[in-house]
TrEMBL record:
The lineage of its organism: Eukaryota, Metazoa, Cnidaria, Anthozoa, Octocorallia. This is Neurogenic locus notch 2. CDD domains: EGF_CA. Gene3D superfamilies: Laminin. InterPro entries: SEA_dom (IPR000082), SEA_dom_sf (IPR036364). Pfam families: SEA (PF01390).
Amino acid sequence: ADECLEDSGICKAGYKCQNTAGSYTCRPGVGYRCRLRIVAIFTIDLYDRYSVTFILYRTRLRSACNRAYSNNPQYIGIIVHGFSPGSVNANVTVLFKEPTTAPLEEIEQAVSNGTFGDLNVSSVVPLPSDDDSSFFVLKEDVKTVKYLIQAVMIVLPVSILIATCLLIAALVKIYTTPKTPPRSVEKNSYSMYNTITTPSRPGDRSNMMRFYYYERDAIFND
């Protein structure tokens, strides 16, 4: 019996089934690494392999690659190693059963034709097989970032609430404090104090000098 023909999924992803006498073996396929640049906004969730966003992107990439390589019998699948900023850079290994001379040709054609699934991929860059670009963040680091975000989300609303309460209290104090009427001073108020008429010559009242004496009154209204 040929177990490889009977069960196509007998080996895990990235391995090919090889039939042996009375049994089978799972051998790793030949991998070719590349970087796909997806035109999208990078979010911190893409650092976490267990996040919904990471799983969604990985599923969409696998679906697009499976469609692109549907006519290639040597194609096994892809391994999505991770994502990094710069739009969204996907670090991917394309697996084949045997070595091939143009491992990324199908992806490049699909990208140029605009048929690479629902992902807007702008470029496909081959990578060395020993490329170990840091596309991963340790799980502990991801947890730390999540805790920091949660702390900010808790502290920020509380701070805004406290500031709002203080502002309202200050406004209430301003508008409820009784006002003392200001003391007004009327300046430059003059009243005629006396009028003296003095003849310029004895018996001559036609030319008279009038002297007006004014006294400045300061009127205080309390």
